[in-house]
Amino acid sequence: MRVRQTFDHYVVAVCDKELLGRTLVEGKIRFKVSEEFYGGDLVEIDTCLQHLKKATIANMVGNDTVKAAIEAGMVHKQAVMYIEGHPHAQWVQL
């Protein structure tokens, strides 16, 4: 998980550990789960959820991560897209 805080935003990027560094391909989509964007601290899912509750911008990929966000009521399951079979969700609060 990586958290970036600016004057206007609290940005949280979370991925399942096994996806870090991979590039997922689905049709014309090439989705890089980069260390630069998603890498940072290896934390428990409860810690991720605490940060996601504060997020104004959130980006998450992976079965465990997205499932936890859905179960916590942060992501609607119909708002999830799948890339190479892996769920991806994001939001921006304006």
Count of runs of 4 or more consecutive helical residues: 3
End-to-end CA span: 22 Å
pLDDT averaged over residues: 95
CATH architecture grouping: 2-Layer Sandwich
Proportion in β-strands: 35-45%
CATH class: Alpha Beta
In short:
Helix content is 24%, strand content 35%. It has helices spanning 35-38, 45-54, 63-71, and strands at residues 2-5, 10-15, 23-26, 29-32, 57-61, 81-83, 86-92.
Describe the structure.
It is a single chain. With 94 residues, the chain is of the alpha+beta class. The protein has a single domain (2-89), classed as uncharacterized conserved protein from methanopyrus kandleri fold like. It has 3 helices and 7 strands, in the order E-E-E-E-H-H-E-H-E-E. Strands 1-2-5-7-6 form a 5-stranded mixed β-sheet, covered by helices on one side. Strands 3-4 form a two-stranded antiparallel sheet. Strand 3 and strand 4 (29-32) form a beta hairpin. Helix 2 packs across helix 3 (63-71). The chain is globular and about 35 Å long. The two termini are 22 Å apart.
